[in-house]
């Protein structure tokens, strides 16, 4: 059974998370999978490292695709370029098994997570954010791709 099946609290947390909180969960998942890949490479478990990097790549694609291009197109395009860069670096890391490349992506993800956390804090304090992701819920009973990705990242973690 997967982790969210064993932990209904976690599934509820993901399904009820605001778009801002959901994005933080996605950053956490990508960072966790990158760290799992590094550990697997150290242990010469290349199958696990490959799959961990693939999961991080999937999350980065979700982070990029969930950006709202209507709010601030210039900033959004720069964010898309950054996510594309991280994605390409992870492809490189998967081919070369280079820990420094994974570390580079982890640092970028951590910086983005910290920045996003500051935005969440602003939103919670009542200040209007400069840019926000698309609305997370598609409607009652529907799960968005971001929620599915977040659940998947917690379901398949080692």
UniProtKB/TrEMBL annotation:
Keywords: Bacterial flagellum biogenesis, Cell projection, Chaperone, Cilium, Cytoplasm, Flagellum. It is found in: Cytoplasm, Cytosol. GO terms for cellular component: cytosol. Gene3D superfamilies: Flagellar protein FliS (1.20.120.340). One of its GO terms (biological process) is bacterial-type flagellum-dependent cell motility. Belongs to the FliS family. This is Flagellar protein FliS.
